[in-house]
Amino acid sequence: MRTEPIRDQASAEAAEQARTRDEPEASRRSSQSALVRPARSSQALKTGLIFFPAFDWAISPTHPEREERLLYTRDQIFEEGLMDLPQIEEYKPRLAELKDVARVHFCVPDVESKTTEAHLIAAGSTLVLADALMSNQIRNGFALVRPPGHHSMRVVHGNRGFCNINNEAIMVEYIRKKYGMRKIAIVDTDVHHGDGTQDIFWHDPDVLFISFHQDGRTLYPGSGFVHEMGGPAALGSTLNVPLPPGTTDEGIHFVLENLVLPILDDFGPDLVCNSAGQDNHYTDPLANMRFTAQGYARLNERLNPDMAVLEGGYAIESALPYVNTGIIQAMARLDYSHVREPDYVPGRFTQTGEMVRSIESTVNYLLNIWETKDDLISRAKEELGQFYRNRKRVFYDTDMISENQEETVRMCPDCQGYLMVGTQASQGHGRLNTALGVSIPLFACRSCQDDAREEYEEHKQDAKYDFVYLQDRPRDVYRSYHTRTRNERAY
């Protein structure tokens, strides 16, 4: 299971310069945004890696989401000698704190019941690399961890889409709170729509979430359409690119060059994160796309994320070792041109004219959404008044849980407003706990902070709910109140 030998650093840098020289300037993402990004000294030349296969966690022994997803990759990387290179630094994982999870999720009834040690280590691994990045020890980082997380939403009653808690969202909110960053871009390259990450940042205009994925009409979770653009105060901050089954490197790179990179340039994020799902690969058993290891490596080189977090990818032997090797070499600015799958034949996959036109039409539609988002937000605020309310249903396919939610958002003229979400769930014929969560955004105005805290105190007396939660991000305090026992705890 070998790729071609790795070229030395000088050859890699020369190859990189040649590729860059031939690229049009308009399609490149600038290394500095309009806002302040993390300082990078000349010594910060390493790519940080963490491997966490989670040997003691599995949905079932034969489930596609199992430890071998990382074991074959680790063997390949060590066989190639990547871990011996000065451009690579391996870090050890640690446990995330319960507070780190509560900062993002309303876990019903509590964080402990919805997470295992493996979940906390997977999330904690991203925080280790985040600290290394922000302290200028590394130039970028890739957390190769499981269980994955991008289908986990703000409210958590159980496992959906193989995910309990959202590793990347936990990392983003940790960075924002600890290091004061505000504008974050998340680009989700998993073949499945990142519906959990979308849900968590749906009302946040400071987080740009872009997901390109196989069309939800043909694949789980059945969402991620172009009309899903974010909450009324954050319209255009969520952009979904549903792609036709069979999309190749050509189609995905068209989306990257003509939509993703120009919008990132315009948005000017402090940090760019990649939800690095690898199930767009042509051998993946759970999807129908035609992406290659070279396509993934090139995507990573062009996107140039500060942080990447592994999500899906289930072709354990035929894809993951090659895809991950290519991504790591691209992140470390090594030459990846000889990374090849054993069965790959150049020119094997092509797109029909109809597919090409469909992708171009989607890109043009979303560019128009991005360009007009300020007008869309202004009109929405005028029409909605003081509060926005929305009801939705969520299905947990792994744990077979049905949930009903009702969101209420304060439409504040001075900030994004605070959020309240009521939730009621059932499993089979059994009723699960009901809850109300009150969430105060990190950058909420003083008025919204005060009002939200009052809402929490008032609803502690509401017998309609078994639990009432408060996410107080400005104070970094997270409370849970059991209405029947009248016990309150703080994370």
Q: How many distinct folded domains?
A: 2
Mean pLDDT across residues: 90
CA-based gyration radius: 22 Å
CATH top-level class of the largest domain: Alpha Beta
Distance between the termini: 46 Å
The CATH architecture term of the largest domain is: 3-Layer(aba) Sandwich
**Helix vs. strand class:** alpha/beta
The backbone outline, from C-alpha atoms, is globular
> Helix coverage percent of residues?
25-40%
Q: Which blocks of ≥5 consecutive residues have pLDDT under 50? A: 1-42
* CATH topology group of the largest domain: Arginase, Chain A
Largest beta sheet: strand ordering: 2-1-4-10-9-6-7-8
Helix/strand order? HEHEHEHHEEHEHEEHEHEHHHEEEEHEEE
Biggest pleated-sheet summary = 8 strands, parallel
Proportion of strand residues? 15-25%
Number of DSSP-assigned strands: 17
CATH superfamily of the largest domain: Histone deacetylase domain
| Number of helical stretches of at least 4 residues | 13
Features:
single chain, 491 residues, alpha/beta, Arginase, Chain A, seven-stranded mixed sheet, globular, disordered N terminus
Give the helix/strand layout.
Layout: H1 9-21, E1 47-52, H2 68-80, E2 88-90, H3 98-102, E3 106-107, H4 111-114, H5 117-134, E4 140-145, E5 155-156, H6 167-179, E6 184-188, H7 195-200, E7 207-214, E8 238-243, H8 249-267, E9 271-276, H9 293-303, E10 307-310, H10 320-331, H11 353-371, H12 373-384, E11 387-396, E12 401-410, E13 419-427, E14 430-440, H13 446-459, E15 467-472, E16 477-482, E17 487-490
Parallel strand pairs: 1-2, 1-4, 3-5, 4-10, 6-7, 6-9, 7-8, 9-10, 14-15
Antiparallel strand pairs: 11-12, 12-13, 13-14, 15-16, 16-17
Helix pairs in contact: 2-10, 5-6, 8-9, 8-11, 9-10
